[in-house]
Amino acid sequence: METSLEQILQDGKLLRQVNDLIVAHLRDNNLNQAAIAVASATMTPLNVESPPNKLIELVAKGLAVERDDALKGIAPASLFDSGSVIPVGYGSVPAPRVTSVDFRQLDTKGTSKSFPKHETRHVSEHKNVARCARFSPDGRFVATGSADTSIKLFEISKIKQMMLPDARDGPVRPVIRTFYDHLQPINDLDFHPQSTVLISGAKDHTIKFFDFSKTVAKRAFRVIQDTHNVRSVSFHPSGEFLLAGTDHQIAHLYDINTFQCYLSANAPEIGIYLVMQVRYSSTGGTYVTASKDGAVRIWDGVTAQCVRSIIGAHGSAEATSAIFTKDQRFVLSCGKDSMVKLWEVGTGRLVKQYVGATHTQLRCQAVFNETEEFVLSIDEPSNEIVVWDALTAEKVARWPSNHIGAPRWLEHSPTESAFISCGTDRSVRFWKEML
Fold first, then answer.
1. Which CA distances in Å does 91 have to 44, 165, 229, 264, 339?
2. 374: closest CA among 117, 196, 202?
3. Which helix (H) or strand (E) holds 174?
4. Is the separation of the CB atoms in 220 and 208 below 8 Å?
5. pLDDT tens figures, 144-185
6. pTM score, two decimals?
7. How many alpha carbons fall within 13 Å on the CB side of residue 56?
8. What's 103's DSSP letter?
9. Is the distance from CB of 38 to CB of 19 less than 8 angstroms?
């Protein structure tokens, strides 16, 4: 009887802790109505204290244990094809080298950090403009898409091997897969968060699914036929849904199992504002769109309601990219007004501007490094990569891009000090910190 009572008390305590974490998570991610509803239903204080992203950290640890257990026994099959061979440990994200930046310290003054020197290497070339790039969540692969309609998949370990000065085992080929299945230029790419699946969005109005665990597959095993030019694609962190930013004014949400398309009935205002980029937050609770009308819009990831419109975020110039910080409290945007800006999600307040890089022609990106200590973008006139300290907004580096003509895309590894640049000269360059 005592054991039973003790177990009941322990279960009750655990349930209260779970409820606390859920309420704090919803509240801290600006899902206030949901937080109020859960707090009321579970009799949990709305102002309960919890470290930011504590729920996510615990879930991630639990999933990691599950993956380890599965690898010790029977490895899980691919989400889409039981005949696929999944690389051991794929999708398990290593811990960052250092703690990511606490952007709540944005108003404090401090000394800017030095961005470490990098070495670079031309690693491949498309037959036409290299238009986009994306790293896998675990940082082990990177894919590039081109106007020649091809997709190249690189293994990062092989790129590093070919960069070694004393490599003696003959030429290393870092391109491990090349896919040809689009009819028009490719605009964006994304990796499934757990399975060995790569998706691409293109001007031919399609989203295509490629299984890169198969060494001989050249074509997509699934295709979504959209109604518009697909400019951007982003997987939900669960892997069950994806968003497509298109020439339609509202991002298209797809269930990847049924391919059913859902459209929000809550567009923020009437007008045509082509979605240039769409990206989910780290938990999928929200997503952000950068639009041709210069606006940045934040959307509820569950209801698909627009919860904040930052109209004129880049004036009347096109907003070309927008991404969340890891803590989901801020959005970094880039536009053809030659500005890179950091916005507070909860208020829509502009908190930082990163000045000194001109980009008015290309669909330029602004990205964080893996620790979010630095922001990187492109200066088109000088053909340089520009780096700022994320907290002080001070410019800390300008490097020749080594491309012929300015790069049109930068993508940073999520797990290490390395990034990809690709451009109108058709080439793909890999950059890594010099040791």
1. 34, 30, 29, 30, 34
2. 117
3. none
4. yes
5. 999 999 999 999 999 999 888 776 566 788 999 999 999 999
6. 0.78
7. 18
8. G
9. yes
